[in-house]
Amino acid sequence: MNDLSTIRGIFLNHILRYCVRANTRFSSAWRTFFRSATAIGFSALLISSLSGCSRKTSERKDADPGIKTSDQVQNISVQELLPPLGKSTGKREAEVGTKAKNDYLYGTLAGQYKRMPLAIENLKKALAAEPKFIDAHHNLGLAYYKIGKIDEAIREWKTTLRLDPGYAETYYNLAIFLMDQHRIDDGIKLLNRCIEVEPYHLKARFALGKIHQQRGNYPEAIRHFRAYQHEDRGDLRVLLALGDLYLLSGQAEASMKEFESATRIDDHNALVHYQLGIAYQRGKRFNEAITQYKRAVELSPEYTDAYVNMGDIYAARKEYASALSSYNAALGVNSSNPYVAKKAAEMEKLLVKREP
């Protein structure tokens, strides 16, 4: 059985599951493919949190000589990627013929199953039948991006926006491309356009939140993460980011709420308990802080900072034996920590003075 027959068989078996609804941007199947497509690369600033790929752009190019990007595309003006907003002049899936729709869906499924040449072949067939098929242009751009044909991807995404200037996902994709070229400020402009046309575009809100967080613009970062939570209050990454931001902004109570929500989502995450411990400690709820630090080291016995923070709380309360025990546990993980070694020595001296 050839590749096309295989894909068509999969399609026939799963058509009810994967069909795109009439007025949606792209199918759930394509969303899966998109997550793979973005992993081709991203700027060092956001790469670990958004794309799931840890390589920098230069490393990516060395590792994959098939990636092709012309100087013209690398240096493309951001204004070329920001057409005036207006009415769509293209066609959505509900408006195209049966053959174009089927070819589009075959191509989408091929993309999901990482058969990019087959995805490109079928998406091109869909566009041959319906040259103004907006979603097909967008998804063809994703397929090209995945195999490293960046110029072709940008061309398809520019066509997508020419046909529909309100296609939010394309602005997001283009922002990823620009930030992969280390053009962070231009990427921000495209992300802002993305949320202008789709205010609760989650990936764009998350990206903007992380950028502003790392730039120290905490109120703006909080604004974007709160907008994210308007649609999804259960994302652990966002809860942790907001908890950190509230701590950095001196809002201990607000920080506690975010980290407490995070523990309800993932009670087996040492980082979550450690961060909640910090929030409690900042809020002078020391017993609760110790409980969280103990849970953190229970889950991750080498969590040095949790031992140190417990030691600091005990030391401040003049519970020197407990403080020494905590500091020694930290030294057992990292014996070269000068702060901990100093504190442990201090506790020993204080305990000696207490002896009758």
What's the architecture of the domain at 1-176 in CATH terms?
Alpha Horseshoe
CATH topology of the domain at 1-176: Serine Threonine Protein Phosphatase 5, Tetratricopeptide repeat
The CATH class of the domain at 1-176 turns out to be Mainly Alpha
Radius of gyration: 26 Å
**Number of beta strands:** 0
Mean pLDDT: 84
State the shape: elongated
Helix vs. strand class: mainly alpha
Q: Could you describe the largest sheet, including whether it forms a barrel?
A: none
Helix content: over 70%
Task: Please provide the ordered H/E string of secondary-structure elements.
Answer: HHHHHHHHHHHHHHHHHHHH
Q: Strand content of the residues, in percent?
A: under 5%
> Any idea what the CATH superfamily of the domain at 1-176 is called?
Tetratricopeptide repeat domain
Q: How far is the first residue's CA from the last residue's CA? A: 88 Å
- Low-pLDDT stretches are 1-65
Tell me the number of helical segments per DSSP (H or I, 4 or more residues long). Answer: 20
